[in-house]
Task: structure prediction
Amino acid sequence: MQLEKLDFMRPVDGVEAFSTTRGEVDGRNAYSNVNLCDYVGDDALCVLNSRITLAMQLGVDLDDLVMPRQTHSCRVAVIDERFRSLDIDRQEAVLEGVDALVTTLDGVVIGVNTADCVPIVLVDDVAGVIAAVHAGWRGTVGRIARAAVEQMCRMGARADRIQAAMGPSICQECFEVGDEVVEAFKKARFDLDTIVQRNAATGKAHIDLRAANRDVLLAAGVPAAAIIMSQHCSRCEHDRFFSARRLGTASGRTFTGIIKRSI
Result:
């Protein structure tokens, strides 16, 4: 399985962040052969095989691979020893309707699935806290990245020590939206001048989700120099990353994860 490494501005010993790529692409199969998301219509055995392959590649057990069932919420879940002690049904209940995960545990991969939305990984290596965030436009409006930073701080992190990296997501040119979406950002008091452009030919609005999430992180106290935005567009590079806008919602998802290993 080929992984796209995500780099932080300052290297962090023992921490690895990455996004999966689609693997072998077949135009007749919108799931390709690398999809870890189990609620988008893919064959269950194919999903399981992808998860097993990634776990083996990272050198962890399958149970060490943790991802939520996302619903474009602003809910953050903590993955701790209490969570790990739950049976599978109770773990799934905790992960239902969650769009960000935070942990201090070593050897546990936390991550989110996206197909145009912005995946964000966060780390405070001094406190040993990591996070993974799924920020679609609704989650961005709700400032889910701020909620993740706040949860990290409750677990010992400091916002001015946090580093952030964004994985592949839709670029502004590709992200055409209706005026109701622009209005949602306006009501949430985003600076529209920095995140919205109008297509001169169509008059349609295009939002820069990466820049919007960068603004959220900055307002939460994360230093500007510690925020890296991916230059990979999921829709433009749909042969490498999944794009719901290009492939439809019945397609695979790119998994963006982070793991902290004991050193």
